[in-house]
Amino acid sequence: MNIKTIGIIGAGTMGSGIAHACAIAGVEAVMQDVSESALEKGFKTVGSSIERLVRKGTIDDAGKTAALARVCTTTRVEDLASVDLIIEAATENEALKIKILRAVDAIAQPGTIIATNTSSISITRLAASISRPEQFVGMHFFNPVPVMALVEVIRGLRTSDATVDAVGELAKRLGKTPIGVKNSAGFVVNRILCPMLNEAVFALGEGLASAEEIDAGMKLGCNHPIGPLALCDMVGLDVLLAVMDVLYDAFKDPKYRPAPLLREMVDAGLLGRKSGQGFYSYAG
Ligand code: CAA
């Protein structure tokens, strides 16, 4: 199946990043969210990340205009009825995702593939909530989507080969490298990455070193591009906590328990970059 048009549910960090990738690759994208203000913010994010490419000379102003013209926005799920693929990129909450997936399933054409950008929730379980589990797949992008080259393609128990192939092909057209992953909590990357980030929060909470020192340790000692606590702020502390909760629930192994400081910060509304404050301050 040749995917030409894409619907994206959610205009947040991941949804707008996916819209950017589509726009640059010449793929039409319809971004849906519940409020006009969320859509405006998401569309502005697409505009500023495309502007980075203009500043670097990768594309010119005409290229930017053409790319932005490929992205349209709507508050109505029904407006996604004619697309070839719908990618759900809403908040990492299973009940919410199921509600959205059922609404999408009800309006999408019979041939439409439905994908989820979930960071950790079972693809098999999400698939069971809709009428087309064979045409349901995990398509997990990484943050920031315009820069990160990976897409995990996660096969649920009933996902068809044709669905996996179509989404893998699309990932390549978007300039990404797909890896095929078996359905399991956290898939591959977050299964490995998130416990490391969580451990950095434990280290901070136990007073082993300051946030700056912990981050310097992993940057200078392991050549990581940014430190783990700065990465927590980028990913979103609420997202990290949700992933750790999923890992802990799935494996019942104490090694996945979320750091108390992580939960405390989420409870306080300190979510990282998106809230202006996490382990570092982003005010102003
Ligand atoms: N949108 C578009 N482009 C961006 C961007 C954004 N939000 N942020 C950075 N860039 C681009 C810049 O334009 C720049 O491009 P060029 O090199 O072509 O000029 C490049 O990225 C580097 O940016 P900077 O020099 O400003 O900053 P940096 O050197 O600190 O790099 C980074 C930024 C690429 C994000 C780097 O910090 C990095 O690789 N961080 C780790 C990211 C990571 O691990 N992501 C995975 C998160 S886990 C996840 O997403 C899974 C999940 O489910 C939770």
Task: From the structure above, extract its key features.
eight-stranded mixed β-sheet; alpha/beta; 8 strands; binds acetoacetyl-coenzyme A; 284 residues
In short:
The protein has 11 helices and 8 strands.
Strand and helix layout:
Layout: E1 5-9, H1 13-25, E2 28-32, H2 36-56, H3 61-69, E3 71-74, E4 85-88, H4 94-107, E5 113-116, H5 123-127, E6 136-141, E7 150-155, H6 161-173, E8 177-182, H7 189-205, H8 211-222, H9 228-235, H10 237-251, H11 260-267
Parallel strand pairs: 1-2, 1-4, 2-3, 4-5, 5-6, 7-8
Antiparallel strand pairs: 6-7
Helix pairs in contact: 1-2, 1-3, 2-3, 7-9, 7-10, 10-11
The structure holds acetoacetyl-coenzyme A (CAA).
The site of acetoacetyl-coenzyme A has 17 residues, from helix 2, helix 7 and helix 9.
Taking the sheet with the most strands, its summary is: 8 strands, mixed
What small ligands are held by the chains? acetoacetyl-coenzyme A
**Strand adjacency order, main sheet:** 3-2-1-4-5-6-7-8
Content-based structural category: alpha/beta
- Put simply, the count of helices is 11
**Percentage of residues assigned to helices:** 40-55%
Report the count of strand segments.
8
Give start-end ranges of low-pLDDT stretches. none
For the CA atoms, what is the radius of gyration?
19 Å
Mean pLDDT: 97
Element-by-element helix/strand order: EHEHHEEHEHEEHEHHHHH
Distance between the termini: 46 Å
Could you tell me the strand content as a percent range?
Answer: 5-15%
User: What global shape is seen?
Assistant: globular
